[in-house]
């Protein structure tokens, strides 16, 4: 092997920091480096198979694809090689010298902070290759790309200390070999039984044979012996697959250290023929809330790998689902562009969506505690489906969970069906309130009437809730109503009469309020919904809500100022006191104080808080002097 043109490079700064952390951190499960390298090798072979579909002239002979593992105790090395697609010099620099995946800084900060979950994080951020430095003092990669000319290979070498070198080499076979020079303390990974156990644990059901160079004591010879089953798990009958095998396959395709929460495995025959193996993870990845987050489905056609991160088979609100889809109807040369307009894909998406929702529904009925774990992890994402999937809207609504006034805890455990079962006799609607957080919603003055009359109200404080409830206006023939909006149907529930009505009418109190606040409000009126609060603001039924306005503002979109309805509690001592004030300037100050109090409670902020404080202090001072 001839080496020429040696060049030295520095790792990207984030890669350098990551390497330092990996080398100097204690990992409870060092063996994951084997899982990562074999996973990379399997991907490289899958990519070459796919490459041959569009370049059949290059595949002159049928290739026997394998992953080879070799142990060299004399030189303290472990080698893993494949005959996959390989890498060019440019690809080596891009893949082994930098970390291009977004969110790397977050990964590094998590790696520093979270000792228990370090192993899990490696796979999620696509930096598995760097795990080799957990056990190695030096790593060499020899590779040749399918696109490179004859014998034109690349050698990459690094001690994991900030730099790496690249050399041109002569390499006849396409593919990649990773050679690990193990630390003296890691010689356990030079034992054949140890490697066999690790590969069976993590890679038993990848479709590529993994073979180890095994020594035959009797014949005194070496030969490659297959370790794994090398059969696509999804192609086997469900009765032939153990629960542990399903779990290990999930970990293989996701690099997740946790077992999946639940899964579904089905083969469909008829107008469409396909097999799907879909998993619901038990933990959400850190970037799940990003709607651009990659989807977790892999596409195979007749057991031939086609592509990762397929978005077309499930709606975006189910982007947390992981697994594979193997279609027998699609052409082998299918591309992402073809998938966009393919009628087969449309049918698959409808069918797979229905299957996932059915799986979740059955989980919620049969294993409510396990479903609650799912909801705590993925409920926010599932809520998106109310607006996105009109066809399955009712099914999704059944899966939603809420907290409420009488639920008396912040955890969302209450279904809409349970809410309806507990409704009061004359209650016509499902009531809810949205706010910035749970405590703000729980202590809102809008709830006073409902608490007094034992009417439960859903408390919604997730940012997505206001947007979701704009699309969820009815459930099981029951209208869904925000209590911070004007609602005439509440009058049917309110039986109290305003005992002070005539006194206030005599003084034209409401008329005075309107004249003082003028265009700051849309309307002013008395209400019997309040018990301990003098006044609140509500929006008209057709107007934008406060929380929706906040959402637009957070997104940088301007909205017209909300004109509120000013609802006043005539039975409150403060209102009775203000009603008796005849001096116009003082009355104006009190009305403005009431309005700004209500505005602060409703929106959480004031345009000029200093003016509000000055007005409050001024009125308190006058009261003190009056008492003296």
Architecture blueprint of SSEs:
Layout: E1 3-10, H1 13-24, H2 32-54, E2 67-72, E3 77-82, H3 89-96, H4 104-113, H5 118-124, E4 136-144, E5 152-158, E6 163-170, E7 175-182, H6 192-203, E8 210-216, E9 221-226, H7 243-254, E10 262-268, E11 274-280, E12 296-301, E13 304-307, E14 322-327, H8 336-341, H9 343-366, H10 368-383, H11 385-388, H12 393-399, E15 403-404, H13 416-421, E16 429-434, H14 438-442, H15 448-452, E17 458-460, H16 465-469, E18 474-475, E19 478-482, H17 501-506, H18 509-517, E20 521-526, E21 535-538, H19 546-554, E22 564-568, H20 573-579, H21 584-603, H22 609-627
Parallel strand pairs: 2-8, 12-14, 16-17, 16-19, 20-22
Antiparallel strand pairs: 1-6, 2-3, 3-7, 4-5, 4-7, 5-6, 8-9, 10-11, 11-14, 12-13, 15-17, 18-19, 21-22
Structure description:
The protein has 628 residues and is of the alpha+beta class. The strands form 4 sheets. Strands 1-6-5-4-7-3-2-8-9 form a 9-stranded mixed beta sheet, with helices on one face. Strand 12 (296-301) and strand 13 form a beta hairpin. Helix 1 packs parallel to helix 4 and helix 2 (32-54) crosses helix 6 (192-203). The longest helix has 24 residues, at 343-366. It is elongated. The protein starts with a strand and ends with a helix.
């Amino acid at each position: 092997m001839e080496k020429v043109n040696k060049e030295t490079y520095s790792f990207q700064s984030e890669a350098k920091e990551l390497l330092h952390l990996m080398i100097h951190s204690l990992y409870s499960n060092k063996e994951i480096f084997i899982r990562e390298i074999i996973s990379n090798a399997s991907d490289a072979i899958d990519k070459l198979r796919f490459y041959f579909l569009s370049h059949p002239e290059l595949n002159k002979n049928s290739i026997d694809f394998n992953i080879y593992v070799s142990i060299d105790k004399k030189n303290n090395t472990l080698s893993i090689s494949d005959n996959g697609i390989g890498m060019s010099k440019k690809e080596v620099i891009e893949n082994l010298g930098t970390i291009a995946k977004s969110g790397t800084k977050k990964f590094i900060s998590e790696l520093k902070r979270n000792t228990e979950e370090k192993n899990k994080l490696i796979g999620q951020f696509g930096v598995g290759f760097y795990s080799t430095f957990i056990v190695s003092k030096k790593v060499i990669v020899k590779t040749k790309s399918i696109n490179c000319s004859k014998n034109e290979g690349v050698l990459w070498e690094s001690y994991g200390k900030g730099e790496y070198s690249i050399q041109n080499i002569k390499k006849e076979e396409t593919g990649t070999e990773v050679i690990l020079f193990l630390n003296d303390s890691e010689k356990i990974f030079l034992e054949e039984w140890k490697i066999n156990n690790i590969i069976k644990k993590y890679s038993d059901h990848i479709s590529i044979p993994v073979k180890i160079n095994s020594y035959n004591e009797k014949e005194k010879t070496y030969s490659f012996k297959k370790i794994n089953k090398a059969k696509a798990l999804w192609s086997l009958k469900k009765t032939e697959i153990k629960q542990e095998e399903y779990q290990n396959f999930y970990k293989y395709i996701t690099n997740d250290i946790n077992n999946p929460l639940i899964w579904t495995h089905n083969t469909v025959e008829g107008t469409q023929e396909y097999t799907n193996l879909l998993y619901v993870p038990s933990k959400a990845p850190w970037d799940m809330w990003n709607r651009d987050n990659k989807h977790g489905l892999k596409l195979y056609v007749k057991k031939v790998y086609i592509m990762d991160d397929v978005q077309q088979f499930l709606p975006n609100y189910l982007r947390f689902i992981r697994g594979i889809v193997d279609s027998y109807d699609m052409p082998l040369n299918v591309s992402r562009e073809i998938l966009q307009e393919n009628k087969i894909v449309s049918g698959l998406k409808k069918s797979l969506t229905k299957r996932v929702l059915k799986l979740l529904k059955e989980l919620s009925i049969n294993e409510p505690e396990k479903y609650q774990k799912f909801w705590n992890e993925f409920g926010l994402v599932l809520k998106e489906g109310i607006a996105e999937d009109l066809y399955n809207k009712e099914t999704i609504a059944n899966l939603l969970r809420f907290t409420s006034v009488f639920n008396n805890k912040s955890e969302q455990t209450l279904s809409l069906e349970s809410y309806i079962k507990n409704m009061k006799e004359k209650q016509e609607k499902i009531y809810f309130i949205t706010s910035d957080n749970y405590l703000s919603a729980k202590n809102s003055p809008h709830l006073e009437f409902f608490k007094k009359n034992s009417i439960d109200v859903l408390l919604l404080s997730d940012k997505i809730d206001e947007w979701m409830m704009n699309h969820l206006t009815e459930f099981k023939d029951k209208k869904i109503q925000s209590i911070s909006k004007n609602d005439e149907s509440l009058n049917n529930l309110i039986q109290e009469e305003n005992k002070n009505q005539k006194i206030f009418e005599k003084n034209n109190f409401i008329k005075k309020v309107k004249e003082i606040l003028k265009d700051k409000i849309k309307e002013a009126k008395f209400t019997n919904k309040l018990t301990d609060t003098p006044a609140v603001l509500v929006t008209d039924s057709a107007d934008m809500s406060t929380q929706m306005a906040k959402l637009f503002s957070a997104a940088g979109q301007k909205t017209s100022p909300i004109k509120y309805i000013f609802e006043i509690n005539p039975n409150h001592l403060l209102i009775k006191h203000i009603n008796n004030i005849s001096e116009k300037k003082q009355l104006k100050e009190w009305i403005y104080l009431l309005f700004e109090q209500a505005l602060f409670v409703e929106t959480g902020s004031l345009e000029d808080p200093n003016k509000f404080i000055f007005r409050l202090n001024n009125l308190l001072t006058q009261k003190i002097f009056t008492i003296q």
